[in-house]
Design goal:
The protein is of the alpha/beta class. The protein has 9 helices and 9 strands. It binds S-adenosylmethionine (SAM).
Length: 223
């Protein structure tokens, strides 16, 4: 897969090779998506609504295929790359659109953002999270896996080096690691931890490898 100078998902080569690329770049991704799907399954009762935002090729709904079928789940996946939607191999409805436009998709019992928030406009994120919370049905959840800003000081340096080590040891060539890092400039902006602790919403952590963190928020307040 060719790494463009300026990273984009709106590229057929990237969409067609995306699944292998993720595992190469983030060797822990299969475990993280298994955990996300386990949590999703715990909150998907009969006839529930599942929304997967920034779905790419549909890994999440593919992994949840049996519960979607068995519990008559309405699964809605959204991505703003036409190339990803053309290569969608997940389950349920998938359409091209900007997930920041909250009225594009229904209220949900489970909403998943797996590695997609870090590619959105920073200035819109706070209101987006607030809007998502408002679309969460009582008893429902928002599950987010995202890169967050590394801690200050030497620990931040250590964590950056750990990410490089993980990629290198999973077989990615040194030049490809550097090319990808530079390509991501201006495309991938990590979230801040404060984003998940605002408006009285207290997201809880369920996963962490270095600066990639899994958060979950449950609407336990009722309608
Ligand atoms: C790293 S991939 C996500 C991987 C996928 N969630 C998975 O679990 O395999 C990020 C995806 O988010 C999508 N994306 C980024 N910003 C978006 C937006 N504003 N609306 C919809 N999709 C977006 C990209 O097109 C890309 O397919």
């Amino acid at each position: 897969m060719h790494i463009p100078t300026n990273w984009t998902f709106k590229n057929l080569d990237i969409a067609e090779n995306f699944d292998a690329h993720v595992i190469e770049q983030l060797p822990w991704d299969p475990m993280a998506t298994d955990l996300i799907c386990h949590l999703a399954r715990c909150f998907l009762q009969d006839n529930a609504v599942l929304v997967d935002l920034g779905c790419s090729t549909g890994t999440i709904t593919r992994k949840l295929a049996d519960v979607i079928e068995d519990r008559n789940i309405k699964a809605v996946s959204v991505d703003n790359s036409r190339e990803m939607i053309e290569n969608f191999q997940g389950v349920g409805e998938a359409f091209y659109g900007d997930m920041m436009s909250l009225d594009l998709y229904p209220e949900f019992d489970v909403c998943i953002l797996c590695l997609s928030l870090m590619f959105t406009e920073v200035s819109k994120r706070k209101q987006f999270i607030r809007g998502l919370a408002a679309k969460t049905k009582a008893g429902g959840v928002i599950i987010i896996l995202d890169k967050i800003e590394p801690p200050a000081g030497y620990l931040g340096t250590c964590i950056n080096r750990m990410s490089i080590k993980n990629k290198y040891e999973s077989g990615v060539e040194a030049k490809a690691i550097i090319d990808k890092e530079l390509s991501l400039c201006g495309a991938q902006r990590p979230a801040t931890e404060g984003l998940f602790d605002q408006f009285g919403l207290h997201f809880q952590q369920f996963f962490r490898v270095g600066d990639f963190v899994g958060y979950i928020w449950e609407n336990s307040e009722g309608p």
